[in-house]
Amino acid sequence: MIDTSPQRKQHSSEQIFDQIAGRYDLLNQLLSGGIDRKWRNQFLKALPANQSELLALDLACGTADVPITLCRSPKIKHVTGIDLSKEMLKIGQTKVENLNLQQRITLQAGDGVTLDGLPDHHFDLVTISFGIRNFSSASQSLSSIHRVLKPGGQLLIMEFSLPENSLIRLPYLFYFRHLLPKLGNLLSGHGDAYTYLNQTVEGFPYGDDFLALMQQAGFAQLLATAQTFGIATLYCGRAV
User: Does the domain spanning 6-162+205-239 belong to CATH 1.10.10.10?
Assistant: First the structure.
């Protein structure tokens, strides 16, 4: 079994994503059935209605899909994306340059838990897409996010969750536990990466439990919205 303890989780995550970086985008589309794009679009729908010139920070940005998606909105002035995986960032930077978005997106290596080097009360928006469960401490990350957000700034997190309906939950868990690692190994040669995915998802708080972590970190106006029968959840909050 892969070690998913806090002291090993972040290092394991960096190694795994470096290994699968070259095929990550393709695998995401194939293994999610294309739903990953729909989930990212939820960030656009959740943007504040009466604000513009927004400075955004995307954590665990990977190959820059979320920063690129955010830049489809004229409300977004600039997105800073940070990730521990240098291989993922290399691919992301190529995508950004191919789309001529260098003036609106900056990618850099960084720790999503401590957010070292990022200024206090600077960002209007922070996003994380399927990344916070890989952090060594979700609670510490949420506190750091609160620090870098402006008062009233928005936090949007999309993360895997477990469906409440047993008719969906049981086949979902069978897919996650048994089929996904085999498919991941077949397509990427790194089945351990998808075993790790299963273990981090099943052990991570979701729903009201995750909202409680956000509240403890200083967020209010909390909302959790189930996506695709509950296999993912969009969490929203405001820094107060």
Answer: no
